Input
Amino acid sequence: MPNTEDPGSTVFFKLTIDGQDLGLFNGCEGLASEVEVEQRQEGGNNGFVWQLPSRVTFSTIRLTRPLTAETARVAAWISSIATGISRPTAQIAALRANGSIVAQWGLVEVLPVRWQGPSLNPESPSVATETLEIAHHGFTDAGGA
Output
């Protein structure tokens, strides 16, 4: 049976931290990992170099959206860092406009590392946006998101 879903349709991103919904975002960048590779030359075999995996690194994730009432939830999460750091599990789900899930990612030990609010300048009116940047220690099963 052919898939009738439009892969180019608008996608929103839902962020959940330990089951708490922090709202929908319309932009998500940085869902990436990279495996560092060490090269080792094999003695006596001049035509071959071993490519050995070493460290896996994960980039920070930037989520953006227009300013909404859900900003208070993000502010509360960031403020909780002042009382002690706990590194919860998070889920990011890519949703179609009808709410169906396109894809989802589980993140291990997330930490908010940057939040940027809107520029409030009456000389250049534009949509007030916020950006949340989170660090994590890797991907996990996103089940239950």
The radius of gyration is 20 Å. Residues 71-79 form the longest helix (9 residues). The first strand starts at residue 11 and ends at 17.
